[in-house]
Amino acid sequence: MLKILKNVVLLPLGVKSKNDRYYVKGSFKDMKPEYYGEIGFSNSDDLYLGDVSHLVKNIKINNNEIIGDVEILNTTNGKILLNLLNDGFLFVFRPKSLVTIENGCVKNSKIISFDAIQKDDDPYYSIREQRKDKLIKIKEIYRKY
Question: What Rg value do the Cα atoms of the chain yield, rounded?
Fold first, then answer.
């Protein structure tokens, strides 16, 4: 483990997201005590251990939020995530999940992972695509070793 972030808000409850969804306390079925995560949302419903950057533990519902501790792991992507955080990039941790939606409310959510997503109000957000290209290049370099 490289670093631990305590009591991170993983998901606000009862707040409509940018994709017009909202979660409530009853949205989740079989929530596990910990989940691995990666940087960014992938286009897959799978989580590949080679892409893991962090582990989310001690997950609980606290008032109108799901919170947990984020352990940044000593993996290639964990080092990348820590470097990005240390360089001032802002991230939120959000669930990648399979869901049923009724009138905008998420029901029966099966969480796959909690992924590190760059915040929209991050001052670096406007260079997101440049960072994404840079991140791909960094990953390619790491994979050679």
Answer: 15
Per DSSP, helices labelled H in 5-94 are 76-86
CA distances from 94 to 12, 23, 138, 145 (A): 10, 12, 23, 30
In degrees, rounded to 5, the angle at the alpha carbon of residue 13 between the alpha carbons of residues 90 and 32 is: 85
Per-residue pLDDT band for 131 (boundaries 50, 70, 90) equals low
Is the predicted pLDDT of residue 124 greater than 70, yes or no? no
Contact residues for 42 (Cβ-Cβ < 8 A; gap 6+)? 51, 96, 115
d(CA 129, CA 73): 25
CA distance 59 to 61: 7
17, 5 in Cβ contact below 8 A?
Answer: no
Query: Where do the structural domains in the chain lie, given as residue ranges?
Result: 3-144
